[in-house]
Amino acid sequence: MDSKPSPYGSDIKCKEINYTFPPQEQTRQPGMEYLMVPRPIYDNPNYIGTGKMNNQVAVISGGDSGIGRAVAVAFAKEGADLVLAYFDEHEDAEETKQAVEQLGQRCVLLPGDLRSNAHCSFVISYTLEMFGRIDILVNNLAVQFIQNRFTDISDEQWHTTFATNIHPFFYMTKAAVPHMKAGGSIINTTSINAYIGRKDLIDYTTTKGAIVSFTRALANNLVDQGIRVNAVAPGPIWTPLIPASFTPDMVKTFGSDVPMKRAGHPYELAPVYVLLASSDGSYITGQTIHINGGEFVGS
User: Fold this and answer.
1) So what's the pLDDT on residue 299?
2) Which of 52, 164, 172, 261 could form a disulfide with 278 if both were Cys (CB 3.0 to 4.6 A apart)?
3) Do the beta carbons of residue 276 and residue 284 sit within 8 Å?
4) Is the pTM of this model over 0.90?
5) Backbone angles phi, psi at 7, to 5 degrees
């Protein structure tokens, strides 16, 4: 498993993909994809779009890299124009923009701090100014801080985790919903940790549980408007957040503890976001779909 295929190679086969990662560390979150070894694979060239999202506009937070990048590329293959909100990972964002534009779709980059209600409102208002509509909202950003002892979680860390991991979901959604029509879709990225209760990520796990509950309640609230709300709960996925938040030794064994004995790459999640965003998922709302390499999470 030493090969490092181009994301745009002629074929993707399990035996050609690197699922093991050398020890590495980044100094700040959310992390930079261009620094990762190996680079996450964000596109399956065998995935051919069929126009499921033609003439639609999608806003993706955390769209510069990782899961957000993979979702942006899959949406572009299906005909959607993209607005990518991200913090300040400009090199990653420009690479994503180029990938989207190579697929013939428009892509707007909006850097800024999504912990700010005002900035979230700006993202939505700018989307409406540029495209005149918003059909799909993907809430997808997080930080996480390893703490083995519960009492080592500082008040500052607790507030930072909540301000990053759940508040922007509320701000972005509140700004977007008045402009979404029947058939619209909201997709929230949660985590397997909301279900397994990871003991060294208590604040992160708590916010991810909040996202699950937010998804379910919001789905019930918006169902009469024809707007569907769902969540995706990834397991171990090779994204910039991993080397930016885990120790080098943790990176080295990342993903090896699930039944499939490997981490996933972002491209392996993207088709589920397409399902939930498009009319293929027209009878799905209030649900959380698990993509985690076979880990059992209960009901």
Assistant:
1) 56
2) 52
3) yes
4) yes
5) -60, -20
Q: What's residue 2's pLDDT?
A: 37
* Structure-token match 């510069």, residue found: 64
Q: How confident is the model at residue 284, as a pLDDT?
A: 98
Catalytic residue list: 204
Average pLDDT, the chain: 94
Q: How far apart are CA 277 and CA 281, in angstroms?
A: 7
The answer to whether 114 touches 85, Cβ cutoff 8 Å, is yes
pLDDT digits 0-9 by tens, 17-31? 888 899 999 999 989
Nearest-angstrom CA–CA distance, 283 and 190: 21
| Cis geometry, peptide bond prior to residue 38 (ω within 30 degrees of 0) | yes
Give the Cβ contact number of residue 38 at 10 Å: 18
Q: Are 59 and 127 in contact (CB under 8 A)?
A: yes
Residues 222 and 229: beta-carbon distance below 8 Å: yes
pLDDT(87) > 90 = yes
Note whether 5 and 17 are within 8 A (CB). Answer: yes
Task: Estimate to the nearest angstrom the gap between the alpha carbon of 283 and the chain centroid.
Answer: 22
Residue 84: predicted pLDDT: 98
